[in-house]
Amino acid sequence: MRPIDLLLSLLGLVMSSTVHPATVYLGEFDYTQFQPSAEYFSGHTDSEIARLCTSDQHASNDDLAQCAHRQFERADARLGSREMAASTLIIRNDEALKGNNQEPLAMSYLSKSHAAWMQYRDNQCYAEVYMLGEASDRYTRFWLCMTDITSVRTKELESILQN
User: Signal peptide: which range, if any (predicted)?
Assistant: First the structure.
């Protein structure tokens, strides 16, 4: 074998076994493993975080994703509060209906609807973000989608509470 052929063969072997680095925006991700925004922004005051998140000045893609994640965390907390209030109301109503021997009871259906809604929300937002491909604002868009859909669900529960 000629030296140049040997060199080309070795180079081909090295190139075929080299792993090309992927960006963090390539492939699947699990949003439940995302670092909490409070942890990400630790050491910063609320006003510093608010300024970064509202102005976008000197913000990296990670900063912007965590700002959007922070919005979602707040929307999710509001939803949790409304879920608790709606559950309390429905359980109380179910107990009154059960006392009058009336069926079916609503709480089991609310629980099922919430589980189905969560699956819808997650799948909808994953679908939207994966359509972007390897976009640098992938996580930001994902959290904005999650926030939007969560806010709509919160309004639905508020409607239950008002009626």
Answer: 1-21
Pull the structure tokens for residue 32. Answer: 């439940």
Band the pLDDT of 3: cuts 50, 70, 90.
Answer: low
**101: left (phi > 0), else alpha (psi -120 to 50), else beta?**
left
Number of domains in the chain: 1
Note whether residue 15 is domain-resident: no
Q: Is 49 helix (H, G, I), strand (E, B) or coil?
A: helix
The domain that holds 130 is classified in CATH as 1.20.1270
Contact of 135 with 25, CB cutoff 8 Å:
yes
Which domain, by its residues, includes 121? 36-162
Give CA separation, 55 vs 51, 69, 95, 141, in Å.
6, 16, 50, 17
